[in-house]
Design a protein that fits this description.
There is one protein chain. By secondary structure, this protein is mainly α. It has helices at residues 5-24, 27-35, 38-46, 52-66, 72-86, 92-100, 106-119, 125-130, 137-147, 156-163, 168-176, 183-195, 199-212, 217-227, 235-248, 254-263, 268-278, 284-291, 298-312. The protein has a domain at 1-50. The protein contains 19 helices and no strands. The longest helix is centred in the N-terminal third of the chain and has 20 residues, at 5-24. The protein is globular and about 65 Å long.
Length: 313
């Protein structure tokens, strides 16, 4: 598709404005722009003719992140690209180095930890666990978020220890990582659901129970209790319990879920998804009736159709 002259002028002017803005930030940003193609680089990005990764590559992004002379915003951007787009194992050792460097700013170290989680290389687990008790709170939070991305039994005991602490934010983040079906993890999640006063800890624990796919009887019962509103009537908590019942796959959940699908005004959508996961064909008829309702929004219809597909395949 040919670009109009007006649009080209707008892009070039925008690029010039960005370039002038970079000049006001000091010599490092200007040098960075020069190294990746000067003003033409920005124009090409704005026109979609190239991506940052094509120009810089993994090595360039690593260099941009570890170089302490670069502004923090540039370093965080490089880390984001390494974690979200590239996920290249070559970045693991340099990121660990930044995480362990106590002379680095705490936010940069936290970013290094979080990026290690996104990459998912298990070489990072031990360094992350070592940094779990770092003197910096920001680093601790970054490490907890990173550990959530690993399915490894080495993280279970350290995360459980965090869930027993007084910091509600850390408890909730740690609970999110307890998605491996071990007796200790399941017991901890059940305890948080029943006893923790912080809503996020309850919600995350209900969700994590579903992710474990556990066959633990007490876990099944506590999810039923949450669905019935025993631990609060917040919609997010109840809807998450319904979805988790579908994930753990216990057929005893079918009857209460069918009742919700047929009668409930608010949670029939989640019940349909859960019944689709459970694969019980008794749900087909009431699901079809729900699909005929004109009030269903597009995203709900998409999920109802997917549940129907699972039940009829």
């Amino acid at each position: 598709m040919k670009m109009s002259k007006k649009k080209k002028v707008f892009i070039i002017v925008s690029a010039v404005v960005i370039f002038l803005f970079l000049i006001t930030l000091g010599p490092n940003p200007v040098r960075t722009v020069r190294n990746i193609g000067k003003i033409k680089y920005i124009i090409d990005l704005l026109t979609g003719q190239r991506t940052e990764e094509e120009d810089i590559g993994v090595e360039g992004l690593i260099e941009a992140f570890v170089d302490k002379r670069n502004p923090g915003i540039y370093r965080k951007y490089a880390a984001s690209k390494l974690g979200h787009s590239m996920k290249d194992a070559k970045a693991v050792e340099p990121l660990i180095g930044v995480l362990q460097d106590k002379t680095e700013h705490e936010l940069i170290r936290a970013e290094a930890a979080f990026t290690l989680g996104l990459i998912g290389d298990k070489r990072a687990i031990e360094p992350l666990l070592e940094a779990l008790n770092d003197e910096s709170y920001e680093v601790q939070i970054g490490v907890l978020r990173a550990l959530n991305d690993f399915k490894d039994e080495r993280i279970i005991k350290p995360l459980i220890a965090v869930t027993k602490g007084e910091d509600s934010k850390k408890r909730a983040i740690a609970a999110k990582g307890l998605t491996i079906d071990t007796p200790e993890a399941i017991a901890t999640l059940i305890g948080l659901i029943r006893e923790d006063t912080y809503f996020s800890s309850k919600y995350v624990s209900v969700r994590a129970l579903g992710e474990t796919r556990t066959k633990n009887e007490e876990a099944f019962q506590v999810l039923l209790e949450v669905m019935d509103g025993k631990y609060g009537d917040r919609d997010l908590l109840i809807s998450t319990a319904i979805l988790s019942l579908g994930k753990i796959g216990d057929k005893r959940a079918v009857e209460p879920l069918l009742k919700i699908l047929k009668e409930d005004r608010y949670f029939y959508h989640e019940a349909a998804i859960a019944l689709g996961d459970l694969g019980d064909k008794r749900a087909i008829e009431p699901l079809m009736k729900r699909m005929e309702e004109k009030k269903n929004k597009a995203h709900i219809m998409k999920d109802l159709n997917e549940a129907y597909r699972k039940l009829t395949k």
